Amino acid sequence: MDIVTTHRNTDFDALASTIAGSLIYPGALPVLPNIVNPNVKAFLSIHKDLFDVRRVVDVPLDQVKRLIVVDINRWSRLEGMTALKSREDLEICLWDHHPADSNDIEASWKCQEPMGATITLMVRELRDNKLPITPIQATLFLIGLYEDTGNLTFPACQAEDAYAAAFLLEKQADLAVVNRFLRPAYGERQKAILFEMLQRAQRKRVNGHAVCVGRVALDGHVDSLALVVRMYREILNVDAAFGIFENPLKETCMVIGRSISDGIHIGAIMRSLGGGGHPGAGSAMLKSVNPDTVEEMINELIAGNQQASVQISDLMSFPVFTVASDMPTRKVAELFREKGCTGFPVVENDTLVGIISRRDLRKLRKDAQLNAPVRAFMTRHVMTISPGRSPMDAARLMVKHDIGRLPVVDGDRIIGIVTRSDAMTYFYDLLPD
Ligand SMILES: [Mn+2]
Predict the structure, then answer these.
(1) What Cα–Cα distance (Å) separates residue 242 from each residue in 155, 193, 234, 238, 256?
(2) Which residues surround ligand 1, an ion (CB under 5 A)?
């Protein structure tokens, strides 16, 4: 007997991949853990007759010849499969999009690639082998694909994911159904937890990133905490957010993280805590730990995780061409033409006092004004940035104040300048090594 199975707290990518596995391996039984996500539960309750899924308890494990594991690469996340772990005659096939460095399932064969969703890998296989897919299967696969890629917007999403989505739409995936089930399970309990976290939220800066760590004690199991953390991050508009959910009765701590910054790799942080995930999302379950210690560990991990992140000092241009505040405006206009620049910082004894741009000179009405010192026309309130901040901070300031350049200052001494095009270069990954 062949079975296809996946991780506990089964999400839509895992369910979709399990069903797809039963199509790729004809005769293989789809087997689900007892604990599945609430949305998946709702989906299954309606589609029960259409998908012949079994529970772990209904499967005679001693008869399993081939185990197909999807959307996970660790034994600890499977349910009730411990008996298979030591079986030497067992053939294991693995389909997964998580990084291979966290593997502890030794597969005889595997397809493991960094995609936005595991179902993408399996849809590619179905398409290449021209295996038939029904509209209902296509719908489930698309729900899994959209859920894991945030509707194709998460940074881990690949072109391949979008091809798979297009193929599923061709196979008549029903977007009305997709939307209905993608709607997350946000209820009264989730709302109460989110409000408690928001009330006590304290933003902090860690090496240029805005981070929030929230801690809540729960009186039992609560679903959809990942959604709570996602909303917490979005509402606070921070680069990364963490939720520490203590269960005092069971002495466990569930840690969930979300990040939209390249500088904070959630998956790496969670792996240090014994969990896992992607750069943007992940979780870890800790047992018999003191929540204070967990919070301290997370803070240290965030700080340690930052070393590779890019700072303004890596991006800025220097030395900076500046003009003295008493330089005649005529001379500054000449310098603009000569150097092909659109703006200069203005200094008095090395201290930044203003900024002059071509735009400022256009306001001049009389020729005589050109003899006046540039300090008469410069902008005095200069928006600046310090060298340790992140490119994202620079971009936010430029957008907010509609400015094209930010002097980089250390105290009031100007040490560099970062322009809109420097920021663009960074965001488009053209930064030289
Ligand atoms: Mn997945």
Answers:
(1) 18, 13, 12, 11, 6
(2) 13, 71, 118, 148
